[in-house]
Amino acid sequence: MPLTLVAAEPEDAPRIAEIHMAAFGSNAMLLAQFPTPTVRDALKKSIELKALADINDLQTTVLVVRDSGSDAPSSPSEPDRNEQGHGPREQGKTIAFAKWAHPVSIDENYIEPHWVWPTGTDLKILGDWTNKTEEAQRHAIGDSPCYRLTFIGTDPEYERRGAATMMVRWGMDQCRKNCVPAYLESTLEAASFYRKLGFEAVEKISLQYEAGNSKTSQVYEEICFVYNK
Q1: Strands 200-209 vs 218-227: parallel, antiparallel or unpaired
Q2: What are phi and psi of 21, to 5 degrees?
Q3: 191-208 pLDDT, tens digit each
Q4: Which of 25, 149, 188, 204 has the maximal Cβ count within 10 Å?
Q5: What is the CB neighbour count within 10 angstroms for residue 153?
Q6: Assign residue 198 a region: left if phi > 0, alpha if psi is -120 to 50, beta otherwise?
Q7: What is the dihedral of CA 195, 197, 199, 200, to 10 degrees?
Q8: For residues 144 and 193, what is the distance between their CA atoms, to the nearest angstrom?
Q9: Distance between CA atoms of residues 78 and 91, nearest Å
Q10: Are the C-beta atoms of 158 and 96 separated by less than 8 Å?
Q11: What's the pLDDT tens digit per position in 30-60?
């Protein structure tokens, strides 16, 4: 059925949280940072609140893809926006989301909306991974303003239908229009997807950690990609 790419609205935040957990609930780093079912249940609310803050942030574009042929349509009373923020609400089930942070220079003093982490979060592993990703971005593009894909996820029941491609190509189009690069961090599993779209792998992030009460060290890796056309 037809898929439609639109700007997310505040009403999409709970569904974005559902998709996030469905797509990444088994990710090794997520499980290490949020080590118990109780913490992960609370994480869903944190994701919803962050999604809402990002939707309202002028320096972030949150996209969603709706399946207009779904049997779970949006309420016809709710107004929708297209990519420019105008137009009637597109009907259908939200099946995917992406967050693109806009290019911001250092002298703009921009502060990204903060996360509110649930009680029980492993803040050491979270902090160590955050430091690794920030260092990798500095190595990859320095202080250059860029479009940064901070999160992207598709409901597993709707994978391989082109939703992710639509959302990534939106960012690539913005990069070409504004003559700036794009940057993202990818799981190892998704790396080939970005390569096919024209992204270049520039660095690997690797973190050795001990999760929970385990004394066994584990290693988690992701790949940094840059698009610069």
Answers
A1: antiparallel
A2: -70, -35
A3: 999 999 999 999 999 999
A4: 149
A5: 21
A6: left
A7: 40
A8: 24
A9: 10
A10: yes
A11: 999 999 999 999 999 999 999 999 999 999 9
Per-residue DSSP letter, 181 = -
**Would you say 67 and 6 are in contact if contact means Cβ atoms under 8 Å apart?**
no
Q: What does the alpha-carbon distance between residue 187 and residue 43 come to, in Å, rounded to a whole number?
A: 20
pTM of the model: 0.89
Tell me which residue of 129, 99, 114, 160 sits closest to 31, measured CA to CA.
Answer: 129
Distance (Å, whole) CA 189 – CA 201: 13
Are 199 and 215 within 8 A, CB to CB? no
Quote the CA–CA distance of 87 and 65 in Å, as a whole number. 15
- Residue 59 burial by CB count (10 A; 0-12/13-18/19+): exposed, middle or buried? middle
Relative orientation angle of helices 13-24 and 37-55, to the nearest 10 degrees: 130
d(CA 105, CA 14): 31
**Pair of tokens at residue 149:** 């894909």
